[in-house]
Amino acid sequence: MNELLLMRLHEAILILYMISIACYFFDFVEKSPRLKRYGYLLLLSVFVLQSISIILFIFIVGRIPIETINEGFYFFTWLIILISLILSKVIRTEFFIFLMNLIGFVFMMIHTFQPLDLSTGTTVSHMMNELLWIHVTLAIVSYVMYLIAALHAVLYLIQMHQLKQKKFNHKFFRISDLESLSRFVQIFSIIGCVMLMISLILGIYWGITFEGKSIWTDSKVLGSLLLLIGYSVYIFLHQKNKLMMHRLMDFNIVLFLLLLINYLIISRFSGFHQLFY
């Protein structure tokens, strides 16, 4: 009964999420304030319902739903929606909100159509502690920060292309200027780096304590360390203007694609990361 309730709730959330994204898309194409308003209200409804489903999960199962990769998708989507609701009041770029939530919708869909696990404990739940919870949460939050940075990099390239083609239509003026987009890429990349670095420090400390020196040969740990180095190099190059800006935007997008590979694929070969996120 509990499993059926959560499944139906997730399906309803997915439908509302899809309609909300459609409203944002049509608003961007046709410039309709009414559709934009509907899209925002539906997105807010999705956030509220998703928050309720997380609370129900905690009440029914007795744990926070981030212990498996599939549960991590749901938490990742919840963060995307929360941040997009905040940014929609700060950054007047509907296309950015659309792209961000389109990615969130994909992860939500993957989660919804996977078998629901209502077991009170996963393989790692017995050795979970506050340190590990913080490590996992910070890692997922850093992924959202990197996603926001990558989407602004995409918008930068789109805006630059429109400038070269001299396409000064209403879509052009509804995307931020190049300087603002570049600044947002840098800011969110820095925030992501700080969070990922703290997450790695906590995770490595936990790993050494429970797994021993084998932590240093774990594929996910090595991949995350390389990504942190890659983003640090990007921040340095951006700060020192060592590359042309559009090349830096390409670099940022490639780094995020590598992050997705590290999270979705390399985690499968990890000795213990595949167990919880």
From TrEMBL:
<feature type="transmembrane region" description="Helical">
    <location>
        <begin position="220"/>
        <end position="237"/>
    </location>
</feature>
<feature type="transmembrane region" description="Helical">
    <location>
        <begin position="184"/>
        <end position="208"/>
    </location>
</feature>
<feature type="transmembrane region" description="Helical">
    <location>
        <begin position="95"/>
        <end position="113"/>
    </location>
</feature>
<dbReference type="Pfam" id="PF01578">
    <property type="entry name" value="Cytochrom_C_asm"/>
</dbReference>
<dbReference type="GO" id="GO:0005886">
    <property type="term" value="C:plasma membrane"/>
</dbReference>
<dbReference type="GO" id="GO:0017004">
    <property type="term" value="P:cytochrome complex assembly"/>
</dbReference>
<feature type="transmembrane region" description="Helical">
    <location>
        <begin position="41"/>
        <end position="66"/>
    </location>
</feature>
<feature type="transmembrane region" description="Helical">
    <location>
        <begin position="12"/>
        <end position="29"/>
    </location>
</feature>
<feature type="domain" description="Cytochrome c assembly protein">
    <location>
        <begin position="73"/>
        <end position="267"/>
    </location>
</feature>
<dbReference type="GO" id="GO:0020037">
    <property type="term" value="F:heme binding"/>
</dbReference>
<keyword id="KW-1133">Transmembrane helix</keyword>
<keyword id="KW-0472">Membrane</keyword>
<keyword id="KW-0812">Transmembrane</keyword>
<dbReference type="InterPro" id="IPR045062">
    <property type="entry name" value="Cyt_c_biogenesis_CcsA/CcmC"/>
</dbReference>
<dbReference type="InterPro" id="IPR002541">
    <property type="entry name" value="Cyt_c_assembly"/>
</dbReference>
<protein>
    <submittedName>
        <fullName>Cytochrome C assembly protein</fullName>
    </submittedName>
</protein>
<feature type="transmembrane region" description="Helical">
    <location>
        <begin position="72"/>
        <end position="88"/>
    </location>
</feature>
<feature type="transmembrane region" description="Helical">
    <location>
        <begin position="249"/>
        <end position="266"/>
    </location>
</feature>
<feature type="transmembrane region" description="Helical">
    <location>
        <begin position="133"/>
        <end position="158"/>
    </location>
</feature>
